[in-house]
Design goal:
Layout lengths: L4 E5 L3 H13 L3 E5 L2 H10 L4 E5 L7 H11 L5 E5 L4 H9 L4 E4 L4 H11 L2
Parallel strand pairs: 1-2, 1-3, 3-4, 4-5
Helix pairs in contact: 2-3
Length: about 120
């Protein structure tokens, strides 16, 4: 399996660290940032195969962050994560190019399969 580069954008440091550790155990490279602004900067400055982004960020929400990233790097693949279920949020995320919106807590096995599929 080929390692993929993943950017995690989540202000919950404990969650992001745990998620990164599990993804790294699967052989992938991970970087974590805590705000939407940092996510936009990181996604533009470096090449990532996929962005895992929380919708509820402290500065700009994940959907707006994705819109900004895709305006600068249209081919970016993203999976958004949320602890809240909202059909409008999901629809907006998909409209701006998210591959999927996953509900926290995440099923790690499903996530790893989605990451592998999204990177191809």
């Amino acid at each position: 399996m080929t390692a993929i580069r993943i950017l995690i954008v989540d202000d919950d440091g404990e969650f992001a660290d745990g998620l990164a550790e599990l993804i790294e155990l699967d052989g992938h490279d991970v970087r974590i940032v805590a705000t939407g602004a940092q996510g936009v900067t990181a996604a533009v400055e470096e090449a990532y195969d996929i962005v895992l982004m929380d919708i509820g960020l402290p500065d700009i929400d994940g959907v707006e962050c994705l819109r900004r990233i895709r305006a600068l790097k249209p081919g970016v693949h993203a999976l958004l994560m949320t602890g809240y279920s909202s059909e409008q949020l999901r629809a907006n995320a998909i409209e701006f190019g998210a591959l999927e919106v996953m509900t926290k807590p995440l099923d790690i096995d499903s996530l790893l399969k989605r990451l592998a599929a999204a990177s191809n």
